[in-house]
Amino acid sequence: MGHSIVSRATAIFIFIGFVYVIALVSLRSDWLKSQVSSLRSEEDDIAALKVALEEETHKLEEKTKEANDLNKQLEEAKKDKLLLDETNKNLKDVRQQLEEAKKKLDKKNKELEHENTQPKQDSADGTNPSGELIKSSTPP
Questions:
Q1: 115 contact partners, CB below 8 Å, separation of at least 6
Q2: How does pLDDT run across 21-73, given as a tens digit for each residue?
């Protein structure tokens, strides 16, 4: 009889062990299923993030291209401004030269007016102030 109690206890122990193992395997299986589900969800999230990242990268590339175009326009505008500044300087120089020439012309006009307003005197050698010989109305 002692042998049958030990074998019954062993059988019960083995049975409880199997139930325990089955329960652990079942729990482990549920845990693994939840982990797989979580990983799939994370994969979906990663895929969505990847798509969003690609869209943002594309937008950033467009913005970079726009910025490069604006930089080129800015460089061209700087060159145009330098040319405009140089042209303005040249115009100021020309204006100054024109004013100086006008002053000289005005001075020359005043001198000519002064000469024209003074009576012409014949010189003793028979020439007028311009150096031309004077034809007299009386014979010499």
A1: 129
A2: 999 888 888 888 999 999 999 999 999 999 999 999 999 999 999 999 999 99
- d(C-alpha 58, C-alpha 61), whole Å: 5
61's tokens: 């590339």
What contacts 127, CB < 8 A, 6 or more positions away? Answer: 133, 134
Contacts of 120 (CB under 8 A, 6+ apart): 128, 129
DSSP-derived 3-state class of residue 97? helix
Residue 14 dihedral angles phi and psi, to the nearest 5°: -65, -40
How far from 93 is each of 56, 82, 89, 102, CA to CA, in Å? 54, 17, 6, 14
For the chain, what is the radius of gyration of the CA atoms?
A: 57
Measured distance CA(126)–CA(140) in Å, rounded: 11
- For residue 133, report the phi and psi dihedrals to the nearest 5 degrees: -70, 140
